[in-house]
Each structure stands twice: as C-alpha cells, then as structure tokens.
C-alpha cells in the first residue's frame, strides 16, 4: 500500500508553507504566532496518522495550544499512546516534515520517513485531537483535519478542552478493556475518576475554606466549572479570570506563568482576595498550577511547583509509612535546575532527589524509574507516577491494622486523583487540597516547610542561542568556551549564589537563572551573568540587560 499522493497534493497546495520561516518541534511541540502555523497543522495531521500506523493503530493525541503564551501565539504537539510526550526521535521527523518547502518536497520527505521508520501503511491510523480557547484555534484545527483526511485517519474530535484531559483521553482509549484500563474515555469519566478519589480522600475531614481559582481566561475555566458539578460541596471554590471570549485576555496579567514570573498577585484579584485566603492560578491550557495566599497583613506569598513537590512528596512518604509499605515502595523526586535551592535541600534531607534537563519528557522519564516518582517544575507543571509494580503492590497488600488499611486506601485513591499522564492543574489542585486537609495546613504552614531563596530569571536575546551548550543537567555551560568560569567567578562573589545559563527550548532566547541569600544579590547576580552572556554572544542591543533592577 502506498500514500494517496493525490489527496496529499491537493491538501498541501491548500496549506502552503510560508517561504521565510523555519519551524522547530521543540520541548513543547511547535509554538509560534498562530497565523503562520497553517501548513504545520496540515502536516502534523499526516504525521500523527503515520505515528499511529507505526504503533499498530494505537491512538495518538494532537493538542492545539500555546499554553501560557500570549493569545496571538499558538502551537501543536503530539501525544504518544500512554499519554506521554512524543518520542524524541519523532520530534526530528516533525521538524523535517514541517520545513519541506514545496508539495513535492513534502511527499519526498513523507516517503523517506515511511521507509526509515518502517511504517506499514496498511495499518489503521487513529487520532484524537483537541484545542484550547485561542481565537486562532478553529482555523488551525481545520488544517489539521485536512491532514487527517488526506491520509485517511480515523479522527476523533475532543473539542475544546485542557491539555491534560486530552492526554487522559489518549491513555484511556489505548488501555480500554485491558488490565491497565485508565478510566472511561470521556470528560465525564475523567471528572468522575478525579472527584470520586478526591471525595474518598477527604471523607471525615473538616470542610475546606473556599479556594479562589484564577483560570487565566483560558480553557481551564470551562473545565473547572464542570469539575465543580462533580465535587459538590466537598471543595467550595470561586472562579476568577474566566473571560474566554474577551479578545487579548488569555494569560494576560493573570495565570500561573504571570504569577510565577512576576512573583505577584494578578491585579484582577487585588480587590477579590482577602487576607488569609488561599488561591491558585492555572495556565492557558490548565497543565500548570501555582498557589498563593495573602497573609494577615495582606502580603502576597507564592507557593510554586517546588513547594507543591515538597508538600506532596512528604505526604506520600507518610502514607507509605502508615500503610507499612516502606520496604516495598520507594518514593523519589525529580526536579530541574530551576528548582529553588531551598526546596532541593528540604527534599534531599528526606528522600532521593534527581536533577534532569528542562522539559517534561526528561522529568517524566526520570520519575518512571522510581516506585513512586514525584516530579514538578518550579513553574508548576508536574505530577506523580506510580509504577505498574507499585500499583500491583498496593492492590495485593494485606494491611494488618485499621491504620495500615487507611494508609493503603489513601495511597490507592491518590493513584486515581492524580493524572499520571502529564501535569494537570485541576488534578494537582485536588491533590494539594487533599494534603492541606489531612495536615490541617493553611497557606502559612505549607509555606513554612522551607523558606525560598530569593531568585531571578532573565532572558537574553542573542545572535545564535544554539551556540550555548550545557552539561550536568544544564547546570554548567560547555560552550561558548570560557564563559562558565566567568560565571563561576561572579557566583562566588554572591553569598549563597547559584546561577546557570541555558538556551530556551521554546523561545529564541538564552535564559539566565540566579539565586542568592538576599534578593538584591540574586537580582545583581542574574543581571551580571546576563551581561556576560550578552557580551560573549553578541546580543541584540535593544535587549542588553539593564545593570540590575
Ligand atoms: P524553556 O523555554 O526551554 O525554558 C519553558 C519552561 C520549561 C517548560 C517548557 C515547556 C522555564 C524556565 N522553562 O522551557 O520549564 O515548561 O517551557 O512549556 O520555566
Ligand atoms: Zn500549559
């Protein structure tokens, strides 16, 4: 069987590649201005179908989103059959296909992929796809559907939904009717799975005080509203920033990325939040979560992905102990270099911690090596993975006391409340609420697990970010040569200093992170290192980092 060349030709002519743009499938798929992605979406439709054929007709997911990016951006990424990120070797295929300059070149690239990846075209192709609320979404989905049609894929439209719900669908579809069945492949199945587990976990606990959820004016608003119906009064919450049809509102001065980056309360919440209240922000596709609260004096405190990891990992360790499973179930944590040094210290004193390069796939794969792997990026993206062996252990274990039995039941419910396919803001929110409830913590007690080291993240626009190469989980530069030792000199001049430089995988910039014992020192270190990067790499004069703010 060969490709239906005519259908692909017709489709490709309708979705021509812009001549002057080079596309790249990065750590979060393709991501750029929504207006230039038409050809990419058509081609991703074909690629997703080929990936499915390669995997014997297992369902592949396609998500159209640009997450926390501003509204004019959009993007697309593929989801592999277990609900995880696309296998790295196929990222290269995606980049190659997206850059074929003409229809003929595209067909040649497709044929070459079919040969090198040994794709049997007679196999079925099955995909499930969804989009977030961005205005450019419908047109991009239409281009994607043209790609599915051109190759004859069996495509299921999951509509407008969150990224983690799409990941859940992929895993649920592919495990249906097997011993690994992940749940019903519908939104109802997803919400029931999460909310039933949450309700079990908080049974008998005092009622939670109302939570405020900042939905970033994105698709999380729709999902959170649905979740409320399933939770009833087991978790009272109010939704803010739900303006999904207001032009320019998405992720604008709100949402998880705004809170994490600016370390501030979204201005839209300043009149809504009361001292002592707990709140959280989702990002534009609801896979990131950042908590915060106002203290008695109305001062803002942020509880980021590192704080979530600390809270959750300690709780799981405690439940494992209560269930008397310490010998059989080892819990570990995975972080990136962006994890606050104080969080790493806190966690290392309690359990094994591994540092990996930025990018969910690195975290996810490292977490899979533990019996229970907790991974969170500081920016609030993360989840907890329970290995198949651990799941079997939990289901086979015979508790010998009522306390052990409760610990075991809690662990089993945790495996259900957590979306193990990918970071999921709503699932993570329920997880956090469970732990706060069990520990009777308010934001203040949670925050005091450890004190964050002051830190600063800045971007530098350089001539070629690919000139920056790193080692040691991105904590040290090997190229440009000599730059790392200059950074080391600066770091040594700042008390409690730590700084590293790496090229972004999602933006055409180099990122500089610094932390130190004092805020002014962290800012100074970040801007001095950024200045070094700028001077070494010939940055854009407009963006030369200011001395320090
Ligand atoms: P880059 O642009 O490679 O730094 C950013 C985030 C990552 C990850 C990806 C994917 C930071 C510093 N970086 O990557 O953690 O979330 O986006 O969305 O937050
Ligand atoms: Zn996101």
Notes on the structure:
There is one protein chain. With 549 residues, the protein is of the alpha/beta class. The chain has four domains: 5-160, Alpha-D-Glucose-1,6-Bisphosphate, subunit A, domain 3 (Alpha-D-Glucose-1,6-Bisphosphate, Chain A, domain 3); 188-303, Alpha-D-Glucose-1,6-Bisphosphate, Chain A, domain 3 (3-Layer(aba) Sandwich); 305-447, Alpha-D-Glucose-1,6-Bisphosphate, Chain A, domain 3 (3-Layer(aba) Sandwich); 455-548, Alpha-D-phosphohexomutase, C-terminal domain (TATA-Binding Protein), CATH 3.30.310. The chain contains 18 helices and 19 strands. The protein has helices at residues 5-14, 38-54, 88-99, 103-116, 137-151, 163-175, 187-202, 220-231, 255-262, 305-322, 341-348, 360-367, 388-396, 402-417, 425-439, 443-447, 483-492, 519-537; strands at 30-33, 60-64, 73-79, 126-131, 154-160, 211-214, 237-240, 278-282, 289-294, 300-303, 331-335, 353-355, 372-376, 382-386, 455-460, 469-471, 476-479, 498-503, 510-515. The strands form five sheets. A five-stranded mixed beta sheet has the order 1-3-2-4-5, sandwiched between helices. Helix 5 (137-151) links the parallel strand 4 and strand 5. Helix 1 crosses helix 4, helix 7 crosses helix 8 and helix 10 (305-322) packs parallel to helix 11. The longest helix is centred in the C-terminal third of the chain and has 19 residues, at 519-537. It is globular, with a radius of gyration of 23 Å. The model has no long low-confidence stretch (mean pLDDT 96). The protein binds 2-acetamido-2-deoxy-1-O-phosphono-alpha-D-galactopyranose (NG1) and zinc ion (ZN). Zinc ion binds at residues 67-68, 283, 285, 287-288. 2-acetamido-2-deoxy-1-O-phosphono-alpha-D-galactopyranose (NG1) binds next to loops. InterPro entries: A-D-PHexomutase_a/b/a-I, A-D-PHexomutase_a/b/a-I/II/III, A-D-PHexomutase_C, A-D-PHexomutase_C_sf, A-D-PHexomutase_CS, AMG1_II, AMG1_III, PAGM. Residues 60-88, 108-177 form the Alpha-D-phosphohexomutase alpha/beta/alpha domain. Mg(2+) binds at residues 67, 283, 285, 287. One of its GO terms (biological process) is UDP-N-acetylglucosamine biosynthetic process. Substrate binds at residues 377-379, 502-506, 511.
């Amino acid at each position: 069987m060969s490709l239906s060349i005519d259908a692909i030709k017709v489709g490709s002519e309708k979705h021509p590649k812009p001549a002057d743009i080079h596309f790249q499938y990065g750590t979060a798929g393709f991501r750029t201005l929504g207006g230039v992605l038409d050809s990419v979406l058509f081609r991703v439709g074909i690629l997703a179908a080929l990936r499915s054929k390669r995997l014997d007709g297992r369902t592949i997911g396609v998500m159209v989103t640009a997450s926390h990016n501003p509204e004019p951006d959009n993007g697309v990424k593929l989801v592999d059959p277990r609900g995880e990120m696309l296998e790295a070797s196929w990222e290269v295929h995606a980049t190659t296909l997206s850059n074929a300059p003409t229809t003929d070149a595209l067909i040649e690239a497709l044929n070459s992929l079919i040969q090198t990846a040994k794709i049997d075209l007679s196999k079925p192709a099955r995909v499930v796809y969804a989009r977030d609320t961005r205005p450019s979404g419908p047109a991009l989905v239409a281009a994607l559907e043209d790609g599915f049609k051109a190759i004859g894929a069996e495509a299921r439209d999951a509509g407008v939904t969150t990224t983690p719900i799409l990941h859940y669908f992929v895993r649920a579809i592919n495990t249906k009717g097997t011993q690994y069945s992940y749940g019903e492949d519908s939104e109802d199945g997803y919400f029931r799975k999460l909310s039933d587990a949450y309700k079990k976990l908080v049974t008998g606990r005092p009622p939670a005080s109302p939570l405020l959820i900042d939905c970033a004016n994105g698709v999380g608003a729709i999902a959170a509203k649905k979740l409320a119906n399933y939770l009833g009064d087991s978790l009272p919450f109010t939704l803010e920033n739900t303006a999904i049809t207001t032009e320019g509102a998405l992720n604008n001065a709100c949402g998880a990325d705004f809170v994490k980056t600016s370390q501030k309360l979204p201005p839209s919440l300043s009149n809504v939040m009361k001292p002592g209240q707990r709140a959280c922000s989702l990002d534009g596709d609801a896979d990131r979560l950042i908590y915060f609260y106002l203290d008695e004096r109305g001062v803002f405190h942020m509880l980021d992905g590192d704080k979530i990891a600390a809270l959750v990992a300690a709780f799981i360790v405690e439940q494992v102990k209560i269930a008397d499973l310490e010998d059989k179930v080892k819990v570990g944590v995975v972080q990136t270099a962006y994890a606050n040094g104080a969080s790493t210290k806190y966690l290392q004193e309690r359990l094994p911690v591994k540092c990996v390069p930025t990018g969910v796939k690195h975290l996810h794969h490292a977490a899979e090596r533990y019996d229970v792997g907790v991974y969170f990026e500081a920016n609030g993206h993360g989840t907890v993975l329970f290995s198949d062996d651990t799941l079997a252990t939990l289901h086979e274990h015979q508790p010998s006391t009522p306390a052990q039995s409760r610990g075991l039941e809690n662990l089993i419910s945790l495996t259900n409340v957590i979306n193990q396919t990918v970071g999921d803001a709503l699932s993570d929110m329920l997880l956090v609420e469970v732990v706060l409830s069990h520990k009777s913590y308010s934001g203040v007690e949670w925050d005091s697990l450890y004190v964050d080291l002051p830190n600063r993240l800045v971007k530098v626009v350089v001539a070629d970010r690919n000139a920056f190469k790193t080692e040691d989980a991105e904590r040290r530069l090997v190229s440009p040569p000599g730059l790392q030792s200059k950074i080391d000199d600066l770091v040594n001049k700042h008390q409690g200093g730590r700084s590293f430089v790496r090229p972004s995988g999602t933006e055409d910039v180099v990122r500089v992170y610094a932390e130190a014992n004092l805020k002014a020192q962290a800012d100074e270190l970040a801007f001095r290192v950024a200045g070094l990067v700028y001077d070494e790499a010939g940055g854009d004069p407009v963006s030369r980092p200011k001395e320090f703010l």
